[in-house]
Amino acid sequence: MEYVVLIPAYKPDMRLVSLVDELLAAELPVLVVDDGSQPEQKPVFDALAERGIEVLRHAVNQGKGRAMKTGFNYLLLNHPELKGVVTADCDGQHTTRDILSVVNALREHPNDMIIGARKFTGKVPMKSLLGNKITCGIFWFATGIRITDTQTGLRGFPMNTLERMMRLPGERYELEMNMLLALKDLNIHHNEVPIETIYIDNNSGSHFNPLRDGLRIFKQIITYMCSSLASWAVDYGVYILLLLLPLGLAEATCHVIARICSSLLNFKINQKAVFHVKSGKREFIMYIAMVVIALGIGTPLLALLTNIGWNALIAKICVDLLLFFFNYLVQREVIFRRRH
Questions:
Q1: CA proximity to 272, closest of 325, 319, 340, 223
Q2: Three-state secondary-structure class, residue 85
Q3: Helix axes 174-181, 210-217, angle to 10 degrees
Q4: Is the four-CA dihedral 73, 49, 64, 57 of positive or negative sign?
Q5: Domain 3-208, CATH homologous superfamily name and number
Q6: What is the pLDDT of residues 111-124, one digit of tens each?
Q7: pTM of whole model > 0.90?
Q8: Inter-axis angle of helices 210-217 and 219-244, nearest 10
Q9: How many CB atoms lie within 10 A of CB 134?
């Protein structure tokens, strides 16, 4: 036995039994985790038991993330000889053919996480299409990793990644996104396999809520925005104060002084609250270099805008918005990037 299909199941119907039958026919072992289903689902699990399927049980519903961790833990303890695990949903959204494609991709890339990426062709519910496009775009900005389907539950994990995945935060659906967010920090590469897009009842059973899950998913970038907003408030306050004081300073000079004041605050907040990296002199020097470069971009741009007639306050807002994206990318990719 080299690969196992792990299926977290909460209130499944007989479609789970049909999927298991197909997987067994394809000679793929299956492990099911019953995440606190109701007595009404007993016939489903009885049918699995008749087929010799191992079913791990939660006494109460604990969430898909916890069910996955329960399955990972069982396989690590009882089947350390495995080469990999494929997770699939219990509701019929993943076909046996696509699950086999992920298994084969794991064979070809034994150290990579495999993502079964839906092609989103045909009649796709607007909620799912827009939700995926938006999350993929923000995910790329937050991490620098391009993934075409961040919400898929069909994934392949090399055995040597399971312990690291189990340590990630998240007990419910957010664990799946946390796994993707952690790829770079864990130094795990990924590969995508195109799979069929299947929706049950127009995806009415989808648990993805763009607002709720977006807040969970993009905690890092939201924290960065709050950090930037706090630093910007200091920056803008000092800038306005210097303009109002009878010092005769030019707008560009006020901009430089204000940026120095806010940068010291921003560095400490980003280090501890956003990127969670223990940094020292090296990171601080790189941060100062980034600030100097940003000033080299922002100061002449601000001077240009004010010289052509822009209001000084509006010009600064526009310049700072541009530098917001520049600074985040530099900090993510260079200054606070974890090194292995």
A1: 223
A2: strand
A3: 40
A4: negative
A5: Spore Coat Polysaccharide Biosynthesis Protein SpsA; Chain A (3.90.550.10)
A6: 999 999 998 776 76
A7: no
A8: 80
A9: 13
DSSP letter string, 29-44: -EEEEEES--GGGHHH
Neighbours of 116 (CB within 10 A): 25
Per-residue model confidence as pLDDT tens digits over 38-72: 999 999 999 999 999 999 999 999 999 999 999 99
Q: Give the integer Cα–Cα distance in Å for 46 and 63.
A: 22
User: Distance (Å, rounded) from C-alpha 285 to C-alpha 305?
Assistant: 30
Residue 340 has pLDDT above 60, yes or no: no
Angle at Cα 76 formed by Cα 143 and Cα 64, nearest 5°? 55
What is the residue-averaged pLDDT of the chain? 87
| Contacts (Cβ under 8 Å, ≥6 apart) of 318 | 305, 310
d(CA 221, CA 328): 9
The C-alpha atoms of residue 116 and residue 119 are separated, in whole angstroms, by 10
Indicate the domain borders of the chain.
3-208, 220-335
Residues 16 and 117: their CA atoms lie apart, in Å, by: 21
Residue burial 209-232, b: 16+ Cβ < 10 Å; e: rest: eeeebbebbbbbbebbeebbeebb
Residues 6+ apart with CB under 8 A from 327: 228, 290, 294
Alpha helices (H) in the chain, listed in sequence order? 14-25, 42-50, 64-78, 96-108, 126-143, 162-166, 174-181, 210-217, 219-244, 251-269, 281-307, 312-330
pLDDT category, 263, cuts 50, 70, 90?
Answer: confident
